[in-house]
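Could someone model protoporphyrin IX containing FE with this protein?
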Amino acid sequence: MDPAALKNSWALVAKSGDEVPLFFYSHLFLSHPEVREMFPVSMAAQRDKLVGALGAVVSNAAQIDEVVPFLQQLGRDHRRFSVVAEHYSAVGASLLATLQHFLGAAWTSELAADWAEAYGLVATVMVQSAEESAEDYPAWWSGEVLGVDRRTMDVTIVQIHPERPLEYRPGQSVAVEIPYRPRRWRYYSPANAPRSDGSFELHIGLVPGGQVSGPAVRSLKRGDPVRIGAPVGDSLKLPEEDGRDLVMIAGGTGLAPFRAMLEQLDRRTQSSQVPRVHLFHGARMPWNLYEHKQLTSLTQRPWFSYTPVVSDDSSYPGERGQVGAVAAARGPWTDRTALVCGSPAMVRHTVAHLTEAGVPTTAIHTESLGITTSAGSQQ
Ligand code: HEM
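Reply:
Sure, complex below.
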């Protein structure tokens, strides 16, 4: 396998932009109409979800060792789309046909052999990991909405009860499909430490122009059926009890995983030492500080302090600005572990400010809300 040839040929194909997924999906759905129903009804806004990743991942297959855990997770995740081993042949054939179409004369028999080998390697890791996980847990959990609290005009708190127990760790995320947008799964992080009845709370924020967040915030109601994917995410978690204090920085509904961690810490108080935690919650306008009361009341705990930060209201009497910049300026946090969650832009900005303020990158743990596979934001 020639790694440079794979990468260069994909870079060449990618230059054709939206034409590439258009060709790929036309080929796939014509040759295998049975897979059409796995994908969202309208593909307009997200043609590139699969194809871009497919090309990028497979063209890097020569360094597969570095991405095996990622591919295993991706394979397990694909179970919720009802993907099974034979579908990989269909997708592989359409990928090769797409490459051939866009590369023209550059599609040599050596290159074809390299791509086929690379795809085979990637697909094998994904399929094996999916099949192994099938012994441990279902492809998805059926669940029901227990209650909905329209907390602000753009944040809704939803209580969900999965039919079967679903084990997650505070800081992890679950993909959720709502009945109003079939097959458009979105990741959310449960906002509570695990409860004995298995129910959990999601904080859903309205994303301007979002295809799923609109009905999720406005239409979801008690009794609605939902599907839930297996918990994912390893980067955001409470550190082992290493004696280090914490600073948590959240943008918008990026607060959810921290709520779960705070609940977990609060349960610890009796049994062991709790680290000091300072939480910064950033929002555009004061009314977007949707947990202000609850967090203010939690400051009665000796280990917890909280600073709300507002960016877009010049009359706000408290801390104003981008939450990451405000938090970094309120340091030093050089002796604390920093946990950051929010939109990809908020996370990037916050990490830059913390690093500039002297917090070592190894002490900064991040998660972009809902993103567990590749970069980008979800709507
Ligand atoms: C090497 C093989 C593959 C790779 C690297 C890959 C990669 C990806 C990635 C990164 C995503 C986005 C995930 C997310 O948003 O959570 C995705 C979505 C998806 N994949 Fe795959 N995939 C592969 C094979 C397949 C196969 C064989 C099928 C079955 C036909 C499939 C069906 C889907 C579906 C239905 C989605 C959701 C698409 C959407 O919402 O627009 N994938 N894939």
